[in-house]
Amino acid sequence: MTGLAVDEAAWGSAWRGRSPADKLLLCAGLVGCALLLPAWPGSVLVGLAAVALALGPARVPARTFGRAIRWPLAFIAIGALTAVVAVGDGGIGWAPDAAARAGSLVGHAVAGSAAVLLLATTTPMSDLLPELRRLRVPAAVVEVAGVTYRLVFVLLESLGTIREAQAARMGWAGPRRSYRSAGMLAAAVLTRSWDRARRMQDGLAGRGMETGLRVLPDALPSSRPFLAFALALPAGITALTLVVR
């Protein structure tokens, strides 16, 4: 089965053995600071802290973290461009405070994305979903997240198999063939994945699966020093931001 680089990084992270609740507390605090504090220096400090923790103590590969954040950065850049455009009587132009608005938007978004990726690259979904149940997240939300996570691997497996078959038939030789193969690949992956998901649902229904699929998660004890750090880091970033501002 084809894997996800972020998922593989989470399983191989040095923080794999830490309690998911501890990591959730740390990352939630960083996300809160990224959203509530001013972009300078609050968001900058949050982004630096998240990247330093991921590449340092958590030992997430820098290449994996960089590849994971590049797509959020692309969406952030597009959002920043659309946020600084003003439409008036004279037509389309730049807003008077375009630089400040773009800087604030990019700072908050990048810092929040880095904090979320810190959690994603250090906590496998098999640890995170049971923790969400313990935190009283609605069961339907947890089940949808679990099914979506499993179907991602179905999509990736179908994508790899079909693309390999196309490449063996020279389907990607030249721009014209590549364009045609890309359309056929998208259509085939969607229909094949839908069929597999339907058959999976029929199989579970035939076994009388009317409730969630429960598994026995690993017992990962909480660490008091890590909890203290998870509380102290956002508090320190908040205090330093207030002093600088």
From TrEMBL:
Compartment(s): Cell membrane
NCBIfam families noted in UniProt: ECF_T_CbiQ (TIGR02454)
Keywords: Cell membrane, Membrane, Transmembrane, Transmembrane helix
Protein name, entry field: Cobalt ECF transporter T component CbiQ
Membrane topology of the entry: Multi-pass membrane protein
InterPro entries: ABC/ECF_trnsptr_transmembrane (IPR003339), Cobalt_transport_CbiQ (IPR052770), ECF_CbiQ (IPR012809)
Residues spanning the membrane: 24-53, 73-93, 105-125, 137-156, 226-244
